[in-house]
Amino acid sequence: MKKVIVGITGNEKELPPMSGLTYVAVVKDLAEGVKAAGGLPIVIPIGTPEMAKDYVQMIDKLILSGGQHVSPQFYGEEQSVNSDDYLLERDQFELALIKEALKQEKPIFAVCRGMQLLNVALGGSLKQDVKHHWQPQLEGTSHDLQVRPNSRVSQLFAEGSQINSFHHQSIKDLAPVLKVTARDPRDGTIEAVEGRGRLPILAVQWHPEFLCRDCDSNRQLFDYLVHQL
């Protein structure tokens, strides 16, 4: 049986810092989650928007991975935070990947920054700075989840499920073609969205790849991506 090919967007990292050596980087746990679910992960390095069509034709499904802030120019705002954690080339390329995936009707799963970029690509906007959403340790969780009944997320996560939190930005205005399926009960921050109707989109604000080794629900999220989305 042919494996489902899942493209994962890659970041760029200078390793070690100040070395002048730039690597294509993806958190290994994302690829491992896809493999454990029976899929075949392929890392997509940052390219030009013109390359997006060919990349999307190669894959069955697309994961938009985490990383830098999304440049506010793409939702009509000026930068209001003191940060240099942006990568314009990545934004431009991944926006082109999203456009092609929708055009080619390839399902999209988005994580953290990926969810934020997806919302922007579909006509939404972001809060440029949110407080108390960055937990001190990579391992573990920081708050629970308020889940919308009869959603894709509710098939996998029970009300009150514990999730992690590693983000300084969040969704402000939701894109019209998306609907909210989970929130942070502490302040209402949007934690999961999915496409309206049959639009094959699922996105989460937390990092399931950091939790799937010890959590059945997050493991099943990758299984859902590979076999059902």
Largest sheet: 8 strands, mixed
Please report the first level of CATH classification, the CATH class. Alpha Beta
Which percent band covers the strand fraction? 15-25%
The CATH superfamily title: Class I glutamine amidotransferase (GATase) domain
Secondary-structure element order, as H and E? EEEHEHEHEHEEEEEEEEH
Q: What class do helices, strands and sheet pairing give?
A: alpha/beta
Task: Predict the CATH topology.
Answer: Rossmann fold
In helices, the fraction of residues equals: 10-25%
N→C terminal distance: 18 Å
What strand line-up does the widest sheet have? Answer: 4-1-5-6-14-13-12-9
Word description of this protein:
Keywords: Hydrolase. This is Gamma-glutamyl-gamma-aminobutyrate hydrolase family protein. Pfam families: Peptidase_C26. By secondary structure, the chain is of the alpha/beta class. The protein has a single domain (5-227), classed as Class I glutamine amidotransferase (GATase) domain (Rossmann fold). It has helices at 28-36, 52-58, 88-103, 113-121, 216-227; strands spanning 5-9, 11-14, 22-25, 40-44, 61-64, 108-111, 126-127, 143-144, 146-147, 162-163, 170-171, 178-183, 190-195, 201-204. Helix 2 (52-58) crosses helix 3. The chain starts with a strand and ends with a helix.
